[in-house]
Amino acid sequence: MSKLDLGNNEFINYEFHENPRGNTIVFSNSLGSDLSMWDPQVEYFKDNYQIICYDKRGHGKSSPIQGPYTFDMLENDVISIMDAIGIDKAHFVGLSMGGMTSLGLALKHSNRFDKLVCCAARADMPPPAIEAWDQRMAVVEDKGTQGVVQGSLERWFSDNFRNDIANNHILEKAEEMIKSTSTNGYIGSCNAIKGLDYLRELGKIKKDFLYISGENDVGAPALAMEEMHHLTVNSKYVCIPGVAHVFNLEKPNETNKILSDFLN
Length: 264
Description:
By secondary structure, the chain is of the alpha/beta class. 43% of the residues lie in helices and 19% in strands. It has a single domain, classed as Rossmann fold (3-Layer(aba) Sandwich). The chain has an eight-stranded mixed beta sheet with strand order 1-2-4-3-5-6-7-8, sandwiched between helices.
């Protein structure tokens, strides 16, 4: 574990899996998770790539930094981590809030990335969605992140996955990640998401770009992500059948294959 010093005794926690023979992949976690959500991908890619995973502000072992956050902040955190390690250019893979971050990085820091992947994310936040985020923030203010565990698990994983006792260890891991997220981190991130507004700019992205959606994802519907693909030059789109939001844990092998085919 390493720490990116932000000053005022605040820091971003990250892991760097060094491999001098490989290019670098940065993995960015979702709201309410930590860097360990990428464990299946780290295990798969570590022999051929260098890997950076990090706990975004207020998540995991990063400081519970007071919000509100913005995507400019979250994107600059990624660049600062790369600078601290000495990585000039990398691939980037983000899911949910990490996927939203991938859009901003492609638009504002394109010179630092080769290929980018946006998983299970929207590019804007229409008024009804903003209202839903306000309601979720109110729950966290009242009950802490414990109050959003059940709803999050229902969005993250398909019914079939959650009802299979063979997956209990993954569900327990996910529950612990959500509960461990600081109130500041969760609410600060929600404020950033409420301001998400990259849809109108997707046509400016010129990098090799991949969108991946889950067929049963209600948070980032497949139709919305397919439309994002059509608006993005040089992009590709894949929809994974039968999965919900956090499909890298629900179907890790299929996710790894899709990522490997694109990054290679």
